[in-house]
Amino acid sequence: MTIPVWDYRPELEEERAEIHDAVDTVLDSGRLVLGASLQAFEREFADYHGAGHCVGVDNGTNALVLALRALGVGPGDEVITVAHTAVPTVIAIDAVGARPVLVDVREDHLIDPGQVAAAVTERTRVVLPVHLYGRCADMTALRRIADEHGLRIVEDCAQATGARHDGHLAGTLGDLATFSFYPTKVLGGFGDGGAVLTGDAGLAEEIRSLRFYGMKERYYTLRTPAYNSRLDDLHAEILRRRLRRLDGYLARRRAVAARYAEGLADTGLVLPDRGADDEHAYHLYVVRHPDRDRIVEAVRAEGVGVGIHYPWPVHTMTGFAHLGYAAGSLPVTERLSREVFSLPMYPTLTTDQQDRVIEVLRKVVSAG
Ligand SMILES: *Cc1c(COP(=O)(O)O)cnc(C)c1O
């Protein structure tokens, strides 16, 4: 039995009839761009979160770019985020011309509010927490720091659709929140896609314009030169159907995590902190061990896929050398990058597959 680390095909197979129906719906509507399907998805995604406004965009990276632009962030400004993340988090800050200020994470992989407070300068405009692997950052502490210094919060929810912090859904705790519908994400689309969520009607209007060349929608009046970052109606219509299944899929991810937690409890692996039942969305199930490289090689040799998220902290990447962070400057991030690895995690993972993952890991870890 080989078990891939990602596999969205069985999920899409379960949904094949719904996907075909979505294609028919868009075909019948006669409107492929900025049409009724996009509008309906935006309404439904906002309602799911109990949030005021959603703007569909072309991917999660541009969702971040547009959120920062809507806040007027640009050259001379600083945005505080983490190096322990997917690289697009930091790329988006760079793309608007602002300076990414990278701070360390806590042992639980999430941004360290104490480090954020220490990194604030008179140039800081935004704190950009990443709800990494599907677990929310400490939004209570971050909100306190942001309010104290007059900063805005943009939540990077690319990995955390459906996660909660103190009962509140990820994406409802900042000034703006960005999502990715890349196919492996918790709510994946049929290709690339993304969204920005906000309770602020003015910011939503700004983002609607920025995703459409900077026009006023439907009027050929340019407000400010921008790009094209629209979400297609076909993607939106498929996402509408997938959104109805989201809670079911989250429950299945959480059940996989519970089985892993039980099966791997006494192995010496550091397992994810689960928090309350509905806090973690389990985009990834990331464990830690100092002997990571040996374990990963041996587990893969047994046909069990594992990933590493992420092997190179962003501040050590050649492309970000200009930021001037020396190796050793973010010690927790750098240690975690040597110890983390991700087990197969998706809603359609069968119990046999889960038990095989557990069996292989138990054997490989204890052989060390
Ligand atoms: C996937 C991801 C993004 C980017 O989303 P895309 O849709 O791939 O552009 C941004 N931030 C994080 C944390 C991600 O995991």
UniProtKB/TrEMBL annotation:
Active-site residues annotated for this sequence: 185
Signal peptide as annotated in the record: none
GO MF, any single term: transaminase activity
GO biological process: polysaccharide biosynthetic process
InterPro entries linked to this entry: DegT/StrS_aminotransferase, PyrdxlP-dep_Trfase, PyrdxlP-dep_Trfase_major, PyrdxlP-dep_Trfase_small
SUPFAM superfamilies reported for this sequence: PLP-dependent transferases (SSF53383)
Gene3D superfamilies: Aspartate Aminotransferase, domain 1, Type I PLP-dependent aspartate aminotransferase-like (Major domain)
Keywords attached to this entry: Aminotransferase, Pyridoxal phosphate, Transferase
UniProt modified residues of type N6-(pyridoxal phosphate)lysine: 185
Recorded family membership: Belongs to the DegT/DnrJ/EryC1 family.
Protein name in the entry: Aminotransferase EvaB
Organism (species): Marinactinospora thermotolerans DSM 45154
Lineage of producing organism: Bacteria, Bacillati, Actinomycetota, Actinomycetes, Streptosporangiales
